[in-house]
Write a structure and sequence with these properties.
Layout: E1 2-4, E2 9-12, E3 19-24, E4 29-35, E5 41-48, E6 55-61, E7 68-73, E8 77-83, E9 97-103, E10 106-112, E11 117-123, E12 126-129, E13 140-144, E14 147-151, E15 155-160, E16 164-167, E17 174-178, E18 181-186, E19 189-196, E20 199-207, E21 212-219, E22 223-230, E23 235-242, E24 245-253
Antiparallel strand pairs: 1-2, 2-3, 3-4, 5-6, 6-7, 7-8, 9-10, 10-11, 11-12, 13-14, 14-15, 15-16, 17-18, 18-19, 19-20, 21-22, 22-23, 23-24
C-alpha cells in the first residue's frame, strides 16, 4: 500500500519487507527512512491530527487478532501503536481492510477480517477498543459532512447521524466513496450510488468486458467522476456521472 504525504514524500507499506519513506525525484525515488516490518502490512490510511498540521499514517498488520498499528507522523517518525497477539496461532487471520472515519465527535479506526471486524477509538496517539459490534468483512469506511457509514459486500451500515442498514443492488467485491457518492463493483458489474437522507439511490449502472480490479470516485459540482481499472486488458475507464446517468466515457489502454 502506498500513500502520498506531502513535499514529494510518500510512505510505502510493505507486505513482507521493510516499509519505507520515499522522496519523489525527477527520475527516481530516494529512500529517506526504512522501518522493520512487523507485518505483513495490509493497508494504510491517513488520519489528520487535532491541529491539522500533521498527517498520521495508520497501518494494519500481523497474523493475530488485534493487529499491529503503525503511526508515521509528519513523514519523520514511525512507532508501534499496539503489538498484536498470538502470531503462532495456525487459525489466525490476516486483516483484509483498514479504514477510518469521523463518527460524531470521535475518530474510529476499523480493522476487518473475513469473520470479524475490530473497531478502535483514536485519541491523539492512543487506540482504545470500541465495544460496538460490526459486520464482517468490511470493504469500506467513509465519513463526510453528510454522515458516516461502513460498507459490507451486501449492505451499507449507517453510523451517524442516524443508524440503519441499507441493502446494495448486488454483492460488492470492491468499493470507493467520496462525499455522498459510492461506487461498487463485482467482476464486470459496476453501480454508482448516492447515500442521501438515510437511503441508497442507484444513480446508474455500467458494465466492463473483464473483471474490475480497482475503483475510485471523486465528487464534482455536477455529480462525480468514476475511475475503473480493468483486469486482462489493463484498461482505465473514466466515467463522468451527472443527473443520475453516465454522460461521458473515456477509455485508455495503460502500458
Amino acid at each position: 500500500a502506498v500513500h502520498y504525504l506531502d513535499n514529494r514524500v510518500c510512505f510505502a507499506a510493505s507486505y513482507s519487507g521493510p516499509s519505507r519513506l520515499l522522496r519523489i525525484q525527477q527520475n527516481c525515488l530516494d529512500v529517506i527512512a526504512e522501518y522493520p516490518n512487523p507485518g505483513p502490512i495490509i493497508d494504510i490510511v491517513p488520519v489528520p491530527n487535532e491541529t491539522g498540521a500533521e498527517i498520521q499514517i495508520v497501518g494494519a498488520s500481523g497474523y493475530d487478532h488485534t493487529s499491529a498499528m503503525i503511526a508515521v507522523r509528519s513523514g519523520v517518525e514511525c512507532r508501534l501503536f499496539s503489538e498484536g497477539g498470538e502470531a503462532a496461532d495456525p487459525m489466525a487471520e490476516i486483516p483484509s481492510f483498514l479504514g477510518c472515519c469521523q463518527v460524531g465527535e470521535q475518530m474510529h479506526v476499523f480493522v476487518s477480517y473475513s469473520s470479524f471486524t475490530e473497531d478502535y477509538l483514536l485519541h491523539g496517539a492512543e487506540l482504545a477498543p470500541c465495544p460496538q459490534q460490526l459486520p464482517a468483512p468490511v470493504l469500506l469506511a467513509h465519513g463526510s459532512s453528510r454522515g458516516a457509514w461502513v460498507l459490507t459486500p451486501r449492505s451499507i451500515l449507517l453510523l451517524s447521524p442516524a443508524r440503519g442498514e441499507l441493502p446494495l443492488p448486488f454483492a460488492a467485491e470492491l468499493a470507493a466513496a467520496d462525499e455522498q457518492y459510492v461506487v461498487c463493483a463485482s467482476r464486470g458489474d459496476v453501480a454508482v450510488l448516492a447515500v442521501e437522507e438515510g437511503e441508497v439511490k442507484v444513480l446508474c449502472r455500467y458494465t466492463t468486458e473483464y473483471d474490475v480490479g480497482c475503483v475510485e470516485v471523486k465528487a464534482s459540482a455536477e455529480g462525480c467522476v468514476v475511475l475503473l481499472g480493468e483486469w486482462v486488458t489493463n484498461c482505465l475507464h473514466v466515467l463522468t456521472v451527472a443527473a443520475g446517468r453516465v454522460v461521458r466515457v473515456v477509455k485508455k489502454e495503460m502500458q
